[in-house]
Design brief:
alpha+beta; YbaK protein; three-stranded antiparallel beta sheet; 5 helices; 10 strands; 26% helix
Length: 164
C-alpha cells in the first residue's frame, strides 16, 4: 500500500464514516476500466479532478463529479475560483499538490487549504465509489462523507453526458 493510500484510510478513520475498501488490479484503476472490470455503475463512481488557474494568481480546487458527467471547468469552476482562465491540473501538478497518483486521486486526505467542490448529483445515490489515493484501491462510501469533509456542494458543477 502506498503512502497516499495509507493517508486516505487514516483520513476515513478520523472522519468516522463507514466505508468499504475495494482492492483492485492497478491496471484497471482508470474509471471506465474499473467500472467495466468490477461491475460498478458510472452513475455511482466519482472522478476527483484537480483544476488550476492559468492566468492571474495561482488558485487550485478539487472537484468531484460522477463518471457519467463532465466537469464544467470553463464556466462554473472558473467562477468558483474567481479566475479569468482555468484548466485541468497536469499529472505532475496533481502529484505535487496531493501526493496521489492519476487513477487514484480522491477527495479524501487533500491539503486542508484546497477548496473541495462536489456536484450536487454526487449526493443523490445511496453509495458512491471514490479513488483510494493510489491505483490499487477504491473506496465505497456514502455521499455524506463530503458533509464530514466540509465540502461545498454545487449545483451544475458538471454537465450530463448523453453518450456514456
Amino acid at each position: 500500500m502506498t503512502d497516499a493510500e495509507q493517508m486516505v484510510i487514516e483520513a476515513l478513520r478520523k472522519l468516522g464514516v463507514a466505508y468499504e475498501l475495494i482492492e483492485i488490479d492497478p491496471a484497471f484503476s482508470d474509471t471506465a476500466a474499473f467500472c467495466e472490470r468490477y461491475g460498478f455503475p458510472l452513475a455511482q463512481t466519482c472522478n476527483t479532478i484537480l483544476v488550476t488557474s492559468k492566468k492571474g494568481p495561482p488558485k487550485q480546487a478539487a472537484c468531484v463529479v460522477l463518471a457519467n458527467t463532465r466537469l464544467d471547468v470553463n464556466k462554473r469552476v472558473r467562477k468558483l475560483l474567481g479566475v479569468p482562465k482555468a484548466s485541468f491540473a497536469s499529472a505532475e501538478e496533481m502529484r505535487a499538490l496531493t501526493g496521489m497518483e492519476v487513477g487514484g486521486v480522491t477527495a479524501l486526505a487533500l491539503p486542508p487549504e484546497l477548496p473541495l467542490y462536489v456536484d450536487e448529483r454526487v449526493m443523490r445515490p445511496a453509495w458512491i465509489i471514490l479513488g483510494g489515493g493510489g491505483r490499487s484501491i477504491k473506496i465505497k462510501v456514502t455521499p455524506e462523507v463530503f458533509t464530514a469533509l466540509g465540502a461545498e456542494v454545487v449545483g451544475d458543477l458538471a454537465f450530463e453526458q448523453q453518450d456514456i
